[in-house]
Structures are given as C-alpha cells and as structure tokens.
C-alpha cells in the first residue's frame, strides 16, 4: 500500500516464534499479519500475535524515563540516565568491594533478546566476577536442559516443526499447546485432519482443549508421570516394539533400565496413576505401531520437583524405540518463552557459559576468559532464580538487577519473594511498563525499549534463529536493554570490553564465541538473517543452510557418542498431602494471556476471553465442601491464601484443583495471585520449582 512500510519481525510471546509482518503507515498506524514466508508459522498467528499492534500503540503504562528513590520510604523521582547509572554503579561497586562479587546479581528473562543476554552474561561472569545471573527460563526449561544433557550429552532439541507433518503418533505430556503454543497445535490439528490414522495421546490431569482432540487422554494423578512412562516402556519391551539394533549400537544402560521397568506390575502402575490398565496398553499400541513418534512436553513436566526424572523417562521411550534423529520422530520440548533457547546459547544461566559451555569445566572457563580478555572466571556456580531471592532475604546478596520479568507474580511462594525484595539493600527494575508489581520495590527504575523499538535475535523451540526488526523509536527516554547494560558496564569501569556501536556487533562477538562448539553459528549475522530469513543451528559456515534435524547419524554428544538410557526412581518428591491439605493444586496458563499480563493485560480483546482469575474444581470436591458455581473460595495452605470464584467442571480430575498463574496485584489483586500458595521446592538437578504440585484446602468464602 502506498505510504506504508512493511517490516518483517518475530512474535515476542511464546517459543513457537511465529513470523510477523508489521505494516506501518506514514502517520504511525501499525497493523500486523502473519509472515507467509516464515517456515515455523507459514503465515499464521494466534490471538496474542494478531493483537501485538495494540501493545505497541498503547503507551499509557510505559516507563518513560529513569526514576530513583532517595531512600526506601521516598517516592520514585525522575532522574537522568547518567544519574541513574552512576548511582547503580556506585552501589554495586560498594557492595562488591565490601562483601565480594557474589553480593550482587542479575535476574533476567527468556523474553530478552540474545544480544541482551550476551552482554549481561559477559558483564557479571567476565568482569564483575560472579556467576549470579539467572533467568525466568529457570522456571520454564531447566529440567528439559538437564534431561537432554544427561541422555544425549548436550542441551539439544533434535526436531523441527516440519517433523510434525511426518509423524503419525504424538505423545503430548504436561502441555496444552492448543492454548499455549497455538500455531504448533494448528499444524498438528491440520495434519491429523488430513491423516485420520495420526494418533494423539495426551497426558494431563485436566481435560484441556488439547486433550479434547486426543485419541487417548491419560488423565493421571499429578506426579505419577514417571510411573506411567515406565509402564509404557515395559509394554513396548514386552511386545517387541523396540529397536534392538538402535539400542545395541547407539545407547548405553538398557539392561539395567529393562530390569527396573519390568519390576513394576502394570496393574499396580495403572492404580498409582489413577487410570485404567487398558489405556496404558492402548498407549503402548499407538506408540509401538507408529512409524514416526514425536513427544511434546512443556511446563507440566518441567515445573516439577522430579522434572528431570520426567524428562529422562520420556527420552527413554525414544531411545528404546529408535525414534530419534529421523524424519517425523524425536523428543520435542516446547519452550514457553520466545528466547529461552537463545538465552541458553549465550550461557545465560548461573551454571552455564557461552555456547553451552559448562562453568564446571576448567578448560571451558579458560576459553571464555581468554576470549573476553580476562585472567580467569569464577568457578563457583551462581545462585539460581529461587536461590537469589532466598539470598536477598537472608542478607547474603545485597543488590539485584531485574530485567524484563515480574518475579513478584511469577516466582513460587510469593510472600517469600516480597520479603526478599523488602530485605534487599538495592533493587533495580529494568522494564517496559509500570504494570509489573515488582516496580513497587525498586530503588531504581530503568525504562526499556519494547518489541519493535530495537533490533536483535531470538531462537525458538526448534533451534530456529530469527531476526527482530525495529519499526518504532523507543518511547520517552527508553533504551534497548543491551544499551542499558553496556552503559552500566562503562560506568563500572569496564568500557574497554563493551565498545559496541550496535546490537549487530554484539551478535558478531557472540557468534565468534560459538565457533567449534555444538551450537556453532559462525555462519550467522544480523545481515544474513535479515536478508535470507531464519536458520536452525548449528550453522557453522556462511554456506550452511542450517540443521533441521540433529542426530541423523545417531552420534550423540556423550563421550561414547551413545545416548544414555537412565534408570530413574519413579516416585514423586512433592510436599505430601494431609487431612488438612488434601487437594493437589496445579497452576498454568490461559489462552489469551501471557505470563503476568504486563503486555496482554492491556489489550481489551484479549481480556474478553477470561477476564478474571478463577479456580477449577471437580464437582465431587466442590459438593463435599458445599461450593457452588461462582462462589468465592479460599484456597489455602501454610504459605498463604488465594480468593477467586470457583468454576466447577468435570474437566479436572477429582482431588486436583487448578489456578491460572497470570494475575497479580496491579492486574486484579494480591488475593488472585496463584503464587501466594505454590511450593518453592525445586528439582535437585535443574533447580526448577514445583509449580504443578502444592498441597491445599479449598473452602467457601462467600457467595457472590
Ligand atoms: Fe506468538 Fe506464540 Fe501465538 Fe505464534 S503461537 S503468534 S509465537 S504467541
């Protein structure tokens, strides 16, 4: 259209990473549509993506300039960027000098761009000398990361979305892609509609929209996933549905595993899981007879005190059937956030270094130190997401810098997080909008540029790197997150190592550091991504067109090059239920909202889907407690309370209740915040919290 400019970019919400074309008129009007050339989304966008332009055009809640408090009791007051960053540098330097580098830390987000992750990781690990950088990806994917590393030797998702159309059996476990990864699900639905032999098996205590599409819904008791998967493995082995050649030549650990899974009686397994034996046998038949078998999972698996075990149990099904590294087959973890994968590429977790190097490996530390031009890196692992807030609360950490995330609503056991933020000596919040509850606890608020106001890259669930273009100027005095961190690095006295003119130069440095690693993207640059479109890593040369599928040669990243079939305990380690707290609370997401609603909560169209928080409860549990549809109920345990209306539904199994995790004080009220009562137990390996299992009781509060 005349007078309109088109900008190709990428949706900033979920890990599907859909391509977006933004049309901008001369008078600044913005509209969005799906990018038909984007291989992940092929022109489709879900409700959140289709409404992206509203979040761009409505600037009413945006943070426009830096603000600072003179002391904790004083109000936030506008200051210049220089004043803000000089104060931050002075405070950080004082704490580092007095208490050491581990007294400070950064808590970032899977919504940060790769370049933003890279500079903050370099600053704290290379120059401040601490590994206290963790992100909300810890709440999302860390159990999958550990599972992949233990079984395959590397944090590597083998599949591509193009495998969807080549598979004939899907095991979707702890995931509701119909709502949370809608465009992936649309591809699956279309494939199933065109090929009736395609089977969906859904494992979920709730009958979600995904489960409604299933040929087989295994509505298990929460926490029994490993028992179920081991029982399916036993069935596959006993009926000869395994690939003995693959097991013999490309795996290790099968004999011990076979012994373990054979010991559990199938009938007993069915009872533990709360489903029928027939249904387990049916799952065995569907998987065993499939030519292409894909498993998909997300937070229902990862956000668990046994998240790593669940991942390993699922990976084992692929390793015993040989369904990995070939077209239409493989384990396919779905990342919740748009750049959880990119964050891991740059080493943006407290135990990682760039390009998936391990902090624990002295050779890896030296490689990175040499590259950054520093003598050595601190070998001590940094604090993870929940550990950082514990350390703030008990005074081991003094200052935290929070980037692009709202921990007061999103972390478990919110009252503890509140106490930690109050106890912290210095809190910096760098964000786009003042709809984050965490801003209230900030000593320093820094306005960040939003989607469309900056350039950079993200990597989606299928290892596909996409470019995000700028089509708007940042509002007010907002700056891109990478620029804020670079300016701060200069104020800290590290300017010599942070001389970048733009995000493209940061990306080039990140790319150089990946050379020769399993995540080699030496063939990528902003220029190439902008002109040639998206590519899946590894992309080791300019001539390479990327790698749609890993392990096609069945050579894994372990020392023996064989995948590891792990024998794992099948019990749950969540907090026990009791007479006082007999129900399992599980939390999750709704279709039209994103995380803590700081963006999607501003869009009227999206708010119409489900306007308020609610509790899902089974009719039998509601009847036992005298609860009727719409009654306000109190959901409680020793950590706190939530008060929301009840939705009585057969869709949730008896003994389990569900709360959506989006609402907090600013959007609705503190009483609607699900994390008032979630458990802060974490998986011992991944340190991912147990959001999907807390012991609670529900009582009628008052009738509407
Ligand atoms: Fe955005 Fe995810 Fe929806 Fe695609 S599926 S439009 S990436 S929210």
Automatic annotation (TrEMBL):
It catalyses: 2 Fe(II)-[cytochrome] + nitrate + 2 H(+) = 2 Fe(III)-[cytochrome] + nitrite + H2O. GO terms for biological process: cellular respiration; nitrate assimilation. GO terms for cellular component: membrane. GO terms for molecular function: 4 iron, 4 sulfur cluster binding; metal ion binding; molybdopterin cofactor binding; nitrate reductase (cytochrome) activity. Its cofactor is Mo-bis(molybdopterin guanine dinucleotide); [4Fe-4S] cluster; FAD. Residues 4-60 form the 4Fe-4S Mo/W bis-MGD-type domain. Signal peptide: none annotated. Keywords: 4Fe-4S, Electron transport, FAD, Flavoprotein, Iron, Iron-sulfur, Metal-binding, Molybdenum, Nitrate assimilation, Oxidoreductase, Periplasm, Signal, Transport. Its EC number is 1.9.6.1. The keyword Iron applies. Belongs to the prokaryotic molybdopterin-containing oxidoreductase family. NasA/NapA/NarB subfamily. Catalytic subunit of the periplasmic nitrate reductase complex NapAB. Receives electrons from NapB and catalyzes the reduction of nitrate to nitrite. This is nitrate reductase (cytochrome). It comes from Runella aurantiaca.
